[in-house]
Amino acid sequence: MSRIGKKPIVVPKEVKVDLKEKVLNIEGPKGKLVLSLFDSISAEYKDNVIILGRNSDTKLDKSLHGLTRALIYNMVKGVTEGYKKSLDIIGVGFRAQVQGKVLNLQLRFSHPVNYAIPEGIKIETPKANQVIISGIDKEKVGEVAAEIRAVCPPEPYKGTGIRYTGELVKKKVGKAQASTK
Questions:
Q1: In what order do the strands lie in the sheet with 102-106?
Q2: pTM score
Q3: Are 61 and 112 in the same domain?
Q4: What's the pLDDT tens digit per position in 43-85?
């Protein structure tokens, strides 16, 4: 049995769960999320606890069992607390600014880069060199953060670019220092 899949998911009182056939609707104070369950996974909601089961012990079904439990847990946490990712922009003259539904990035390019903010995601720029992405869907928040980081990833010599807050970028030794050894 899957170690993760067999753990019950405790649902807080402010979260409303609706399980019909193979569709799970979870609604909380921050919003509503929907998940279609896999055919081989069964779910049961009773006494504010969601318990998952599977039809067979094939390798695929075992992996889907744990995956489904993790997805449902992330949905419950998302509608109650939400998710947040933070990016730092490092470089002289590099900055970000939210203009309506567009994130305007001034980076090492000759033109500004405009990133359209998807539905269900909130982006803030408390400082010119910091971007905070928040939302209720963990997958969507992570995907948006990765797309923004991919516009200008940190380069290995000076370390300039966009990186996650707390991310360590391993710097390479430059050509001048490498030849003197």
A1: 95-99, 102-106, 113-116
A2: 0.88
A3: no
A4: 999 999 999 999 888 999 999 999 999 999 999 999 999 999 9
